[in-house]
Write a structure and sequence with these properties.
The complex is a heterodimer of chains A (539) and B (374). With 539 residues, chain A is α/β, with parallel strands linked by helices. Chain A has 18 helices and 22 strands. Classes of the chains: A alpha/beta (539), B mainly alpha (374). The interface between A and B is medium-sized, with 41 and 28 residues.
Amino acid sequence: MLTEANRRGAVPAGGGTPPPSAIELRHIEKRFGAVHANRDVSLSVSPGSITGIVGENGAGKSTLMSILFGFYQADSGEILIDGKPVNIGSSGAAIALGIGMVHQHFVLVDTFTVLENIMLGAEGGPLLRRGAAAARQEVARLEREYGLGVDPEALISALPVGALQRVEILKALYRRAKILILDEPTGVLTPQETDQLFRILSALRSRGTTVILITHKLREIMAATDAVYVMRAGAIVAHRRTADTDPAELAELMVGRKVRLTLDKAAGRYGAAALVAESLSLRDERGVTRVDNASFQIRTGEIVAIAGVSGNGQSELLEMLAGIRPPTSGRFTANHREVTAETPCNPAEMRVIGVAHIPEDRHRLGLVSAFVASESAILGYQRDTAYTRYLLLIKQILMRHCAMLMERFDVRPRAPMLRSANFSGGNQQKLIIARELAREPKILLIGQPTRGVDIGAIEFIHRQLILRREAGCAILLVSVELDEVMALADRILVMCGGRIVGDLPADEADERKLGLLMANAQGREASETTAVTAIGPGS
Amino acid sequence: MTGAQTPLPCWVDIVLIPLANVTLAFLVAGLIVLAIGENPLLAIRVMIAGALGDSEGVGYTLYYATNFIFTGLAVALAFHAGLFNIGGEGQAYIGGLGIGLVLLAGGRYLSFSVLLPLAVLAGAGFGAAWALVPAYLQAYRGSHIVITTIMFNFLAAALMVYLMVNVLIAPGSMSPESREFGPAAHLPFIHDVLASIGIKLTGTPLNLSLVLAIALCVFVWLLLWHTPLGFELRTVGHSETAAVYAGVRPRRIIIIAMCLSGAMAGFVGLNEIMGVHHRLLLNFTAGYGFTGIAVALMGRNHPFGIILASILFGILSQGGTELAFTIPTLTRDMIVVIQGLVILFSGALSQLSRPWFEWLFSLLQRQAPAVRGA
């Protein structure tokens, strides 16, 4: 076993015999048919350190971690844990070796309590009660040690997202994880919650846990890690001590060329209001108010961004404005068309009046994964007579149209006959953006434009949005990435619990101010959700 | 986690894997024949000779295949809209009823050229109407289409028994059959058509509805992949949320898809009632609606694949009859076994042989760069 002293060292810094690595991967190779997902990957992670792995989407980070967690088997190569070669055939084997994983999408049972979720799969015998008592004790001990701040008796459905993540960490610790892998852990957190997560991670580190942090956010790498590996096209292209590098260098290593992390945009030239919302409200099927009395307007040539922790009504607002859901009360006017509960407007009509919608969830809404690219490239405009002759959709026209979009918006590969699902996330997004922007909409609704999109594509997408803004388009941007909001927006609205709680010009906003507005919102939302859950079973 | 699939050339997916599946099914069937104590090679020779050996066998095979094309298309079309239409049997039954009613009413007064379009409309209309109720219940009430269409099969059967026994039975007849429609209401047999241009063939039930079946395949192919409606239909089938985003109303699509599906199933009546029996009777659908599910599955819900699968199932039906005749120990049940195995291997176990091909192709791919490198 390792000594405490050995565990402390962050990155082995020459001199003396370095301790065996907590994890060492040697020459890992993995192919999926023609796709070379991991090529000759070797890395070593010092015990008791936080190591970041960055890379663009499709760089092979997830495959690598899946191999480490036993989901896939490497074609060749070796895995060493604490210096001993191991064979990880399943996630069960990984857990037995002390590896814990916190997935990007939480895997928790909503209707169970925190404790029940923690025990799930580790019940400790056929009778629950004895196991539960032991588990409760263990969880209390972990709580004392790491201060995660989770009530073991709380129902999962009543907890805010940040707490769910801590439950996942607790789950891993309960299974005696000495190595904790976090896959894009901050996507759903406020800046304050992110800070809290990093505090927890450093508490874990100080007690000897080894942490691997997979992320595409360079700022987080800089803030939280001791060392960082950069992956590109399946291979490790660089290994740096975090102290010796900076975001610009990492971005360049990830993309393989110089990337501009800042955005130039001219001063706004605003025109008349193109989209006006007055007291818009939306109640969902269960009677929960999702959007509460929202009023705002967007002028032509203006980008208005909505910041907020996801799940605070931004998605619903966007869908309402796109015509997918009719408002419960209130009204909005888009290009002189008034939409109310009595006069709803379906998405097809919204497109006709020049409203384009780039949805948050491109897999569920934006495209059909099973369609080839040239079909996804007309989704929503399939009735446009430009694509038909004698009522038939003409393949050549679709192909030409798709090829044109791909050329203009740099979608790679330029393959109109490739299935949409086989494009990388960034290229799928570019295809959707191409489809919508090529129509030169007067109003653009866009949600999470760069979620799961690599840095190179982010830069491109942002430039396209700025171009539309300069062309006089009124843009509503919903994003959970504060960097993005602040880089693009002319005006920023902050949403919480369905309400708009802040409205400020972009140049008066800073991360702290927005974070506080969002966090306030989070507190209120959490208590509201609890209230709803409390009423739920009775009603 | 989903296991990543290795991309294979598309001809492997479309041709090689289905072929391997059918071969596997026949191998297992051969083992069963062996266990019964007969020679599997002899059995397969009898079957193929019976189904394809002469013009009579081919005629019967294609006659069965016609029904399978209709019901296979019905299942496939609904499937593309994400609906599992199990009700082909009932829709075919009621479609046949519609055709029968038209021909009973007009068979003695109207000419063939008037009767044919009326019969086609009636078959389509009645089949569609029988599918409309489950479609409405699915779209607006959330009742699962699988359950409702199964129930509608029973309703159709009960309704037909009632009508045939109490209402439509020919006066003075002991069996529940209607009277003959009259000579103007016969869909010409292919052997008659060919005889008129000088080609003499043995008489078989194969009739002109085969032409309609082939035309429908082209229609479905155009509809699904070359019209905005088909685009919307497939969008709903793949992702209802994406369909809503695209301004498509899924409920409307569910209704349209099911009605089209029911209409196609209804054409079984054209083949059976107008083409062969020339009177209304019970149980003329003989399970074609259910076999259509297997046909669509095997044909991968593509009209061209459905034609091939229909011919295979036609061979099984006709060859099976010959088999039972020639080798009495191999009854018609053997054919049901083979059908079951084909469905098992091409449906439930359709990916069984895939890893073998993936392995084969990864070997080939690995060798190719090595050769290039050298």
